[in-house]
Amino acid sequence: MATERVILTAEDIRRALSRMAHEILERNKGAHALLLVGILTRGVPLAQRLAERIQRFEGVEVPVGSLDISFYRDDIHLRRPLPAGATHIPVDVTGRHCILVDDVLFTGRSVRAAMDALTDWGRPKSVQLAVLVDRGHRELPVRADYVGRNIPTSVREEVQVRLEEVDGRDEVVIVRSD
Amino acid sequence: MQKVETTPARRKAGSASVPWPHRHILDLDTFAPQEISLVLDLATSMKEVLGREVKKLPSLRGKTVITCFYEPSTRTRISFETAGKLLSADVINMQATGSSVEKGESLVDTLLTLQATACDVLVLRHPHAGAPYLAARWLGRTSVINAGDGTHAHPTQALLDLFTLREHLGTLEGRTIVIVGDIAHSRVARSNLWGMTKMGMRVVLCAPPTLLPWDLLKGRRETPGHPFASVEVETDLDKALEGADAVMALRLQKERMEAGLIPSLREYIALYQVNERRLLRARPGALVLHPGPMNEGVEISPAVAHGSQSVIQEQVTNGVAVRMALLYLLCMPAGGRP
Predict the structure, then answer these.
(1) Which residues of B fall within a CB distance of 8 Å from A103?
(2) How would residue A84 be classed by pLDDT, with cut points 50, 70 and 90?
(3) Chain A residues with CB inside 8 Å of B11's CB?
(4) Residue B52's closest CA among B324, B298, B334, B294?
(5) Strands (E), B108-221
(6) To probe the interface with A, which of B3, B6, B86 has the most A CB atoms within 10 Å?
(7) Using one digit for the tens of pLDDT, what is the confidence trace for B34-45?
(8) What is the mean pLDDT of chain A?
(9) What is the pTM of this model?
């Protein structure tokens, strides 16, 4: 029997993303040479929403890419990671501040894979990480630069981010299996 | 504001959840249509990697692939070697000439020796039909890929042909392909027969009666559930090509003529060569395929082989992508195979 608890509503997500967009602009002193790269699947719509906000706040259109990390994962010996979609990097990453965007930061292994994948496309000036939810339980020395919400969780719990573009509605829930 | 597609149309819904039951790739007769689709979907992602500046993935780091060829090969061997290296596997090439095979070592002893080197995947080409099946029976720790066994099968070539067709035609179901030439002795045609019929294509075989695979076609009309019930046979190439979406020409081996299976090369060219005039009978823009190597001027005219409708060079590129996908799938853990 699984129970669900909503921890972020659509309004919470909207506010968190607006704050994150401001933080990105503040830290990078504007939107110059930025590139937002969403980690498939839900990182991509989150990256697009951040880009929309940056354009609204700063008047600059930031390029948005998508990154499929399936072939870069380190758990091929444990499961069968298959491509979630197409990698699309619209501009040369070399010399840009690349912001990886993901929905949940957990062990850090996806981020490690994403950094490997990104550096196959060039040499970014810097790589930063933006996540909607940081749920802890890191297995690698990875931390996010921009966090929507820190949510302490148990390893037995599952954090599910649902987004309008993929799931038809915006919310973050914790699913606990008894 | 630009939009990045999160779920590209090329991606079949649910292909990630398709079970992968194959430890070896011996022929396509054991493949379900959704398993073929899974390979083609994965090959699409692999092909995207071929277009990058850094053509390298770390997926198979620490894995060893051995290509073991008892017959000459250019495309298939190079293609497997490239595929393995692009996935960061260690690839070792072994050819029968210059190996202990020349000292009389048996096939089984050679296979066991290769397995003892801790190889994960063995890519085997052999002049005798069934050799990869023997390998699969003897090798407990190594996956076997049939890279062509006698006149029996060449499953990876068939998969790359299907990939090429799907890439251009969008869908395979209901599309018409004409396979013309020495079908009886073509392992490519035999594997393609399995693959194409499973994917719902309309297959028309065109050849002189002496070069048709009657062993496969026997009883297809009378036997309920015969796998090749839908396959059509037409000995007149002009008729066969009417409305075809694609035509695949097969190499005519000179020894067939010497065996008396065709009256003369000149007559064969006159009746069965895929040339510009004949191609006009097919649909506008119909694709021209050939597994290679070609006898230009025999089964295919140079103008068609290198013309705008030819996808023969693309087949070679696609071969790398498809073999990358297969190596990737075979290197999955037991847990990855439900």
Answers:
(1) none
(2) low
(3) 83, 85-86
(4) B324
(5) 121-126, 143-149, 176-180, 202-206
(6) B6
(7) 999 999 999 999
(8) 94
(9) 0.88
